[in-house]
Recover the amino acids of this structure.
């Protein structure tokens, strides 16, 4: 229960940050990706810098902790392999990101702000999750993000 | 007070909140705040990962946080494509691609880059370039958005 509350607080802050920064607006996100449109919008870059700063500190603090403050152990990826699967997945994700101007976090946050179009995108995204599960069950599970 | 969302300062501030949220997940629970992984996990579409209450609580927090900001500061621009096919095609590719590539903007871009992970740096550079190429191609072909 306590751990779910902590995760809920983190989700809340994450959703608030996406909204304050304008990243829940697909036009803003596509504005960052649109290098050749004559009106480049750098905001997403500032969002990334702002998000990476506290996390860089958090990774250093993590080195001094034997376990998380409210958990048994750190479940963070330790593999560093750059595989074809990683790169092909990133290409497909990037194409979808460019087409719609949405990645998973903003799309889910947008369920509260623009329920109909956000739900259409999120439903298709969930079908994408399911398709991946259907076709990618062979072989060892890939390492998650973060290392 | 009126927030000017167009300003880079709000981007930086919103980013700090996102990074703080990711730091709480890491230092509090020992978990990566990767939205695609947590969403798939909550729906039972991934093996392993965070316990279900953690995955669900984080995912439900996202729209709640958005709603809290909207209620506090008023209308938030959310300009979606009016074409349903755009939303469907984008959603399918984002869903499949983030699972195949083991992460999205949050997992690879925020959590991985901040750790100087070469794997996440390669993924982030790849999806950024793919996104830029996609928008440029749509512009060149005159595809309505």
């Amino acid at each position: 229960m306590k751990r779910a509350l902590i995760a809920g607080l983190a989700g809340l802050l994450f959703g608030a940050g996406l909204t304050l920064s304008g990243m829940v607006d697909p036009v803003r996100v596509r504005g960052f990706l649109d290098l050749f449109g004559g009106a480049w919008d750098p905001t997403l870059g500032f969002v990334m810098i702002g998000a990476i700063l506290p996390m860089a500190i958090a990774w250093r603090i993590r080195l001094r902790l034997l376990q998380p403050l409210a958990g048994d152990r750190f479940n963070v990826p330790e593999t560093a392999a750059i595989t074809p699967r990683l790169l092909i997945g990133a290409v497909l994700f990037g194409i979808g990101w460019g087409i719609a101007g949405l990645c998973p976090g903003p799309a889910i946050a947008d369920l509260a702000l623009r329920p109909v179009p956000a739900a259409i995108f999120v439903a298709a995204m969930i079908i994408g999750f399911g398709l991946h599960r259907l076709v990618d069950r062979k072989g060892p599970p890939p390492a998650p993000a973060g290392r | 007070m009126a927030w000017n969302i167009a300003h880079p300062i709000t981007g930086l501030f919103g980013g700090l909140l996102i990074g703080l949220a990711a730091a709480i997940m890491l230092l509090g629970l020992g978990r990566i705040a990767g939205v695609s992984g947590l969403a798939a996990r909550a729906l039972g579409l991934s093996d392993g990962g965070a316990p279900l209450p953690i995955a669900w609580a984080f995912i439900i927090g996202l729209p709640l946080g958005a709603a809290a900001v909207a209620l506090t500061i008023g209308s938030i621009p959310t300009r979606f494509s009016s074409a349903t096919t755009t939303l469907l095609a984008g959603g399918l590719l984002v869903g499949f691609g983030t699972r195949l590539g083991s992460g999205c903007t949050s997992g690879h871009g925020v959590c991985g880059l901040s750790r100087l992970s070469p794997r996440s740096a390669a993924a982030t550079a790849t999806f950024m370039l793919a996104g830029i190429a996609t928008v440029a191609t749509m512009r060149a072909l005159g595809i309505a958005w």
In short: Residues 2-135 of chain A form one domain. Chain A touches chain B through 122 residues (CB under 8 Å). The CA atoms of residues 15 and 105 of chain A lie 8 Å apart.
